[in-house]
Amino acid sequence: MSKYQFQESDIYLPGTEIPFNRLGLEDADLLGAVEESLLQQAYQAFIVELSAEICFDEAYYRSLHQRTLATLYDWAGLYRSVDMAKGGSLFCRAAYLEQESGRIFRQLEAENFLKEAQDWPTLRFAERLAYYQGELIALHPFLELNGRVTRLFIDLIAIFNGYGPIDYSHALGDGEPNAYIRASIACVQRADIDSLQQIILDGLCRVDDMS
Q: Which helix (H) or strand (E) holds 85?
């Protein structure tokens, strides 16, 4: 786990990078394993629930975080009320979170939540997924697990449209920071989604092509 820098807040156990949690866990590796297990369970549950009635709106996005992590964190599904930075990246200021989140999801709604993308060229779909993923990375509305829940959200849109979950393995590893982290930093610091778009394009595969 990599510790965030907060203004006027600290969610971590004193002297550690371990968030206070409902299970009272004080071992980072164990807590990480629990988080990963909850995320895997969430993938299974949310994929089963996908239907034509699903609306990939702000409430749904927040529900992914809340339902995935409610057994572990008191703040699951809640937007942070403090400013947050990581490394040299300052995420959306807390005072503007609701405004910016509303803007992002109104734009997504105007594109019918990308629910018609099964008829698009894969390149166009990758560009729009990268745009919204980049916007949510820069928003970083939750205290922890923003990246993984945002990837879950984007994966669910991909799966809805007949693709498998996006394969990021080619962008992980091989240096520090890895390609995915570098692409995420570019989204936050320069609003540059080109690298993220290429990572998504490389990781997208239609289910029909996987058989």
A: strand 84-86
Identify the DSSP state of 192: -
What residues in the chain have per-residue pLDDT under 50? 1
Angle at 197 between CA 195 and CA 200, to 5 degrees: 110
Query: Could you give the percent of the chain with pLDDT greater than 70?
Result: 93
Whole-number pLDDT of residue 1: 44
Distance in angstroms (rounded) separating the CA atoms of residues 63 and 19:
20
Q: Are 43 and 12 in contact, with CB atoms under 8 Å apart? A: no
Residue 178: strand, helix, or coil: coil
Give the global pTM. Answer: 0.94
As given in the structure block, the two tokens for residue 123 are: 């390149």
Q: Which domains does the chain possess?
A: 5-210 (1.10.3290.10)
Residue 163 burial by Cβ neighbours in a 10 Å radius (0-12, 13-18, 19+): buried
- At 183-210, the pLDDT tens digits run 999 999 999 999 999 999 999 999 987 7
User: Which residues are bridge partners to 5 per DSSP?
Assistant: 85
Calculate ∠ Cα 74-136-134, nearest 5°: 150
Strands of 100-201, DSSP E: none
Cα 91 versus chain centre, distance? 14
d(CA 161, CA 121): 12
Q: For the sheet containing 5-6, what is the strand order?
A: 5-6, 84-86, 89-90
